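Reader question, answered in our methods column.
A reader sent in the components of a multi-part assembly and asked whether the whole thing could be modeled at once rather than chain by chain. We filled in our standard form and ran it. Here is what they sent:
COMPLEX SIZE: two components
ENTRIES:
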Amino acid sequence: MKKESKFSSFFGTKHFSLLVVIVLLLIVFSVFSEGRVFNPMNIRSIFNGMVITSFFTLGGGMLILFGYIDLSCGAVGSLAGCVVGWGIMTLGMPAPVSMLAGIAASMLCGFVNAVMVNKLNFEAFIATMAMASVVHGVGYNLVSAQGLPIESDLIRWIGNTKIFNQLLPITVIVAVVFFVVCGVILGKTRFGRTVYLCGGNKQAARLSGLKPKRLSYILFTLSGGLAGVCGVLAVSRVGTSYATALDSYQFTGLTAAMLGGIAFGGGSGDMLGAFFGMLIISIFNNGTTLLGLDKNLATIFNGLLLVMALAVDAVSARQRAKSWVRKSMAEM
Amino acid sequence: MSYVKRIVRNKSFGLLLILAGAMILFSLLNGNYLKLSNIKTILINASTGGTLMIGFATLLISGNADLSVAAVGTIASITCCKLITSGAPWPLAVVVGLALGGLCGAVNAVMWFRFRIMPFIGTMGISSVWTGLAAYITKNAPVLVENQGFFKLGSLTFFGFLPISFAYVAVLALLYGLLLSRTKFGRKVYMCGGNVFAARLSGVNVTKVGAIMMINCSTVSAFGGIVLAARMHQITSDSLAMTLMSSMTGAFLGGVSFGGGSGGMLGAFLGLLVLNFFNNGLIMAGMGTYWQIFAQGVLLIVALTVDHFGTKARMNALKPRV
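And here is the structure of the entire assembly that came back:
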């Protein structure tokens, strides 16, 4: 009995439905592209397409679990890239130092977000939007609207090296390491539990001895820092710093997180689901390129996916609440 | 409280002071700042963001939010221009564009009131759909329009400094200001924004009011986009990209609070003027366009900080003295 319920519960999970979507997408695209989807080079580009997104999914996803949203992570990531370019090209600093400076700058931005939300009671998404505007302004001043090409061997090495017969780029390895480490921290440690708990009910969490405020400082700074790492990776892949380089990825990252079942106010969703969400988006983006379709279709698809994911979440949350009420009424 | 004191205590008075201060400061830095031609430039630049701001601010007052205003303006305007280029009479095209805007608002309302998708994320998702669709339809190229009647909608100038696009903003601000402060419906809007449960319990149809405000917001945004196209004689899928931020900043500067239920059209209108006179002043003082984006964010943060301390002071004043 127990085994069966476990078995059937897997088919009811979000992970299962996401996997079904992935398989369907793969079938459709492989039929229309005559199997080119499964070309090793194409699989590489599917994963390549997830590198930048994954950092926003991680940082943003954790914040969403906690009940906040960070709309500045794209801008902050771009700023990190700008700081790298500015440090190397304008100030003549060594590449590692300017990379660290870039990540530090983005962590600072995340921290300031947390201050605005905690000390000044701003709504998180307005505070972070304002931060995005400030950060864009700084970025433009550092590298101008044309962008700043970077001459650095280290940067080029990070961006272009691929091991295992040209199949595994370094950037993908870095992203996987970050994703696994953060996913495990979120899923398996006390810290992760705290994030879920605070997201569910901050007041209750505070009264039971947790410190939601301190946690929100950590999470905002972490979101900034992850965006910074991703900005450094992005700039090393492209070789040029742009002030708005990562803006569109931010939206994709948040979509992936919510698609994977990470809901506002915590409680549900994990990084495996978010990974599946990223995979869906990346396969679709890749497929549109493979079939030579208009890239804007991918933007439309992303938006629709986000709305659908939110609708499913909202409806199922309401059903859960209803069945809970019914159950407790029956027990009475 | 005496009459004078009441005026001085008013938030709009503070905004007027800031506006006057900015004018004096920047005209000292650059003699051309207060010339009529420059004021015209400022008002033209303020007009699209301003139109969007009016829809956005009224919606915020009712306690809802919409981050798709710029995207809705884009898609409505592109539809309108496409219709004109394919030979439809321009008044019809404008009406279709406005109706499409209303429809987008209805979609937002369904998402929130039917499916309970939080407005600001839901509308963010939907705005990606609209901008993607706009770029898909236009293939990332500008849609050029050639129709003298349509151009008149956006190119007239009154008294040498008042462009018609800004006159719309002023008229709309006046109309919505009167609607909000002088009518029964306006009171309901404030009630919904202030405390949605109390409003429902006292018999206000919260869903109806919210849905009307959402549809209204999108229609006004569509109008803003269409007027922009009439002024520029063309429209691209990213023409309105920067206007969302400026419309939000204007509204918050003007004291429309995020939680809803407070602020008004006069404040929002003054907030819009402060923002735009400030932005233009930065350019006239030789700061470069990049600082504009920076300053906009800083202004928004300052506005919210002031709002925060203002609320705190009001709350303290309400506390019973022991």
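What stands out: The radius of gyration of chain A is 21 Å. Residues 296-331 of chain A form the longest helix (36 residues).
Send us your own complexes using the same form.
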